[in-house]
Amino acid sequence: MSIPATHDPAGPGPAGSGPAASRGSVIATIAALTARSLLGRRRSLLLVLLAILPVAIAFLVRLSGRATAGDEEVTTAVMDRLVVTTLVPIVGLVFGTAALGAELEDGTAVFLLVKPIGRAQIVIAKLVVAVGLSVALVAPAAFIAGAILAPGGTGLAGAIGAAAGTAVGATVYVTVFFALRLVTGRALAIGLVYILVWEGVLAGLLEGTRVLSIRQYTLAISAAIAQPGVVDPDRLDVRAAVVLAAIAVIVATVIAVRRLSTFQIGQADD
Amino acid sequence: MSPRTEVPPGWGAAADAAAGRGRPRELTPGAAVELLGVSRWYGNVVAVNDISFTLGGGVTGLLGPNGAGKSTILHMLAGLLRPSDGVVAIHGTPSWRNPAVYRDIGLVPERESVHSFLTGFEFARLNARLQRLPDPDAAARRAIATVGLTDAADRAVGTYSKGMRQRAKIAGALVHDPSILLLDEPFNGMDPRQRLQMMELLGRMADEGRVILFSSHILEEVERLAQNVLVIVSGRLAAAGDFREIRRLMTDRPHTFTIRSSDDRRLAAILVGHPSVFGVQLDGGRLAVRTSDYVGFARALPGLARDGRVSLLDLRPTDEDLESVFGYLVQR
C-alpha cells in the first residue's frame, strides 16, 4: 500500500485544509471522544449533584413555607450565591480545564496531537463539547430554581434571565479556563483563586475590577432580561457585559489555538 | 538503506558541538528522517547536543542509558518538542509546528495510557478517523489484525495486559499505513514471549519497507532486532552504524562475571584453563571471572561446570550495565 492511496482522496493537502465534510467529521470524532471522557469522570457526577442542589433547595424552601413567592432574600441566597457565584464558575472550571487537560495529564492527548488535524479544529471540537455540557447543566438548573422561587409572570422573566445569564457565564468560564490550561498546568488552582479572590472579594470592593469579572457579565445579562429597562448602578451595563463576554471568548479561543500549535510534550520524561 | 551519519564516521566526541557551528549544512535529499545539527536544552541542562543523522528503511535502534536523550530525540522527530537548535525533518519537511507530517509518521509513545474506556478496535478506529481515512472501520480491522489483537478487539483496552496495550498502541500508530514508525521503549514491561512477538512484528514492518526507529536501554533487545544503531550517551551521538561493528568494539574490552557455585575453588581452577578466560579471582565467597569473549564464555560455562561436577548457583555479568559499556565507547 502506498501512503497517499490510503488517505481520503478528498482529504490530502496541508492539515486543516480538507473539505468541510471531512473537517466536520474530524471535529465530530474529537467531540464524541471528549464528551465520553468528560462524562465518564466521577467529577462530572458531582457537578450534576451540585447543579441539582439549587433546584432542591428552592423546592424545599417553597415546600417548608418559610419563604413567600418572590422573597428577595431567599432568591438572592439561592440564585446569586449558589447558582451564579458557585455553580457556574465551578462547572466552567472543571469542564474547561478537563476538556483537554485530562488527556494531557493521563498522556492520551498525544494520540490526538500526532494527527494531521489543524489545531484550531481540536480547540473548537473540545470547546463545543465543554461549553455544551456546562450550559446543559447550569442553564436548566438556574431556570428551574428561579421559576420555583418566583412563580408567575415576573418570576418567569427572572428565570429566563437567570438561564440566559448563566449560559453566557458558563461559556465564558469554560473558554477562559480552557485557554488557561494550555498556558499553565496549574490552571485549576489559578482558576479557583480567580473565582474566590478576584470575583468573590475584589469585584465587591473595587468597582473597576467588574469589567474583568465573568460573574458580573452573568449578573448583568440576567438582570437585563428579568427587569428590562431597569438600570442598576451596582451592575455592569448589559451592552458592555455582552461585548466583554464576546471579547473574552474570542481572545481565549485565539490564545488556546496558538498555545496548542506550539504545545510541547515530553519535556520532563527523559 | 542503512543509516548514514552526517557526523564524521568516528566514535565518541565525533558529534562535538564546536565542530558543527556555523556550518553550511543542508538537508539530505530523499532522506525519510533527518536530524541536522539538532540540540535541545531545558534551561541550563543540555538534553540533546548537536546530533545529526539520517535514516532510511529497516529497523534502527536508538540505544542509550536512561536519561541519555532518547525520548527527547523521538519527541522532536514527532514534532512534539521544538528543537532548540538545528532542523528535524521528515521527508525533507520540518516536523515542528507541521501537523501534515503526521500522515507519514506513526508514533508509539512510552506512556502506557490509552483511553481505557475504548475497545481495541474503537481505539484503532479513532486513530483512523482522526487520520481522515476513507474507510476507518476497514483500516482499523486491518491494523488490529496486523498486531494480532483480533480476538481481543472488542474488549475494553482497560482490561488488556501490558503487552496487549502496547500492541493496541501500535495498531493505532499503523492504521494510516505510515512510512515511518517511531517507538519509545516498546519493550518496557513485556514478558519474554511478548517481546518476541513484538520483535517479529517490527521485523515484518521493516520488511514492508518502513523506516522503524525504536529506543531502548537494553542492549540485547537492540542486538536482536536492529541492523543499525544510534548510540546516545549524555545527549551526544556516541556511535552510529552497523550493530556488529559497535558490538565488536564492546567485546574488545574485558567482561567480568561473578559466579556462585557449589565449589568456587574447583570451578576457578577449571575456568582458568579456558581460552576465553584471562583472569579469575576468589573473593569473599564469590568467584569473579574476567573474559574477553562475552558470548563464548557464557556458552562454554555450563559444559565446563558439568564436566567438573560443579553446580552453578548464580551467574551475573558485573559491568554489563549500559552506562559502563557506553562509558567505554565514549572513552575511545
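qc> The first strand of chain B starts at residue 4 and ends at 5.
qc> done
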